[in-house]
Amino acid sequence: MKRVETRKRRQYLTVLAIACWTQAPAASGQDYPTRPIRMVVGFPAGGTADIIARILGPKLSERFHQPIVIDNRPGAGSSIGSNIVAKAAADGHTVLMISSAHAINAGLRKDLPYDSQEDFEGVALVAAAPLVLVVPNGLAAKSVTELVALARAKPRQLNFGSSGGGGTSHLAAELFEWKAGVNLTHIPYKGAAPALADLMSGRLQLLFPSLPTAIAQVRAGRVRAIGVTSAKRAPSLPDVPAIAEAVPGYEATNWYALLAPARTPGKIVKALNAATVQALRSVEVNEAIVRLGGESTPGSPTECDRHLKTEIAKWTAVIQKAGIRPD
């Protein structure tokens, strides 16, 4: 009974906070924030972007003395949430937690109702987490170099899975094909779990799941990790080489950043950035992100904008080369 009452109380407070966004006047840089801050996440509750938002939220709330309300708006590869923030008032009371999917959408979805770069102000890069290249224990290739040799000897005969066409795991594999000079066959799934199951059964020969998704299976010895997609080795899997050690120039990470609507006043962006960087440098937040298999990446708004621009160009090139279309 108490649990039901607690849930109703949380729902009431959330509705009350949302009501404040439309009833309160816009803030200036001097009195910001004047009401709860809405952090839109374009993914369902429980995903990595949502978890990171909920790790960051309490620290921002402490800094601003206002609630941070997480608003999950999943759908269309996270573009539904992005569109909400693109159209929101540029007063710092609505912000967006994005993942690398935001940059991918710019090259994948031609009908986006917003510009992925111009309609947003970068606040801060938040975190990055590699994907991991896993293969079945029975596969003859036990390293990236051996996998590349096997793929070249058997063009189109090795199957790679993904958690969905056009997603990060799919594009990480397409980039691998491009950089390694191999030809593979793509089998899309509705999520990482069924793809991992088929990998363990031997139906798939390789897969690029996110590190948080696969790390338990790797540590249990159910699959073999032969490379991580970050430029350097991941602290959580120090014995697994970076793919770039065998395939120069390869890098494909899941990353997360905080954006605000375009034309948000500079003083407000600066205040949001300072609060975010302070939170990311706290022991609690940093350790929580490491437990997810990632690392915090505090930086300036300019660095955030530059990173987004680079990632949009990178994934647009991969999408065009592979001829990928949205599901």
Question: Mind explaining what this structure looks like?
Answer:
By secondary structure, this protein is an alpha/beta fold. It folds into two domains: 2-129 and 255-322, 3-Layer(aba) Sandwich (D-Maltodextrin-Binding Protein, domain 2); 132-245, D-Maltodextrin-Binding Protein, domain 2, CATH 3.40.190.10. It is built from eleven helices and eleven strands. The strands form three sheets. Strands 2-1-3-10-4-11 form a six-stranded mixed beta sheet, with helices on both faces. Residues 1-8 and 10-29 have low confidence and may be disordered.
The largest sheet, given as strand count, sense and whether it forms a barrel, is: 6 strands, mixed
Q: Can you count the beta strands?
A: 11
**Cα end-to-end separation:** 43 Å
Helix content: 40-55%
Helix count, DSSP H or I runs of 4 or more residues: 11
CATH C-level label of the largest domain? Alpha Beta
Please name the CATH architecture of the largest domain: 3-Layer(aba) Sandwich
Strand proportion: 15-25%
The low-confidence parts are 1-8, 10-29
Q: Outline, from the CA principal axes? A: globular
Residue-averaged pLDDT = 91
Gyration radius, in Å: 21 Å
Under CATH, the topology of the largest domain can be stated as D-Maltodextrin-Binding Protein, domain 2
Helix and strand element order: HEHEHEHEEHEHEHEHEEHHEH
